[in-house]
């Protein structure tokens, strides 16, 4: 309303005039800022309200703000894996299913505008979103103004770590030095910040020592703290726990297989051995029984046995890894009284390892040789009319046997006297 006074001079008259101005819709609603930013915890309850400052419109009456709506488009950022690269793309959703607007007048007449959460947010699905709230006046045609709403979704530790494999299998040579890497485990966590930070802890099965392994609690890399021994333990079963910064955890199994290295020479274990042997021992007689073994496995534990060149003895397989040392021909103590036999056991490793077992076989005497005189005949002369016990001569005989078998005794045998010529 615009009041003023009107004075006319002829005739003199005085008027009070009031001019009523009719509003036209020549102003659009305007929000006090161009963008509102909210940081909201994921999993916040549905129905949670977030106040907004209302839009202002210089027009009056029906030309001022009458309603608020949310732009149907919801734009949010999402990481996409393309080949070996990760890029951030902006996705447009055709409708906003997470938020609505509530507006009106309070009991005291003040106007209010609120953003209402319709369903819980999930940061792992989308970490940010943006949309517009539009204020519309009642003019004809209506005018509008908008403000951008940016939502940053804050992480809640609602995702435990997840290993890329339920079971990891690694192989390590038994002669690998301390500090060698066996393998690395990997767990991921969809949460962000501290809730997504993962640390690793290592434990070992009951009855196994855990001093042979150590894990890097940040990288998940498992190393050995000392050389492993295949012959002591062929495999080690470990348990790795991944824990995030919020206390959620996951467990995976790690199986470490120790690969054999040819580091053990064959062993010869003698079960029985007969010495001395009578020289009349029959061919095929068992002199010794022994077994061969190798703590290595595969080709490294496969053993072959051999006997140095011998005409009188040989090796004969008995049962599994047992061998017999047997005679193959008649023995003669008088020819050879002692045999030095060397058995060599070799594995099939590369290079092969060997061990040698020596058997000393003594040959005992058998009375198989008669005494032999050193002459086939003796001629002795004696004077007649000698006294008894006079020395006439001596004979000598030798026996190739030994001991009592080679001790010679002499006796005279009566023979018919030779007749002289008459």
UniProtKB/TrEMBL annotation:
Major location category of this protein: membrane
Record's GO cellular component terms: plasma membrane
Record keywords: Calcium, Cell adhesion, Cell membrane, Glycoprotein, Membrane, Repeat, Signal, Transmembrane, Transmembrane helix
Domain Cadherin: 32-163, 164-268, 269-373
Membrane topology: Single-pass type I membrane protein
Subcellular location: Cell membrane
GO molecular function: calcium ion binding
Pfam families: Cadherin (PF00028)
A biological process from GO: homophilic cell adhesion via plasma membrane adhesion molecules
Protein name as it appears in the record: Protocadherin beta-4-like
Protein's gene: LOC111944210
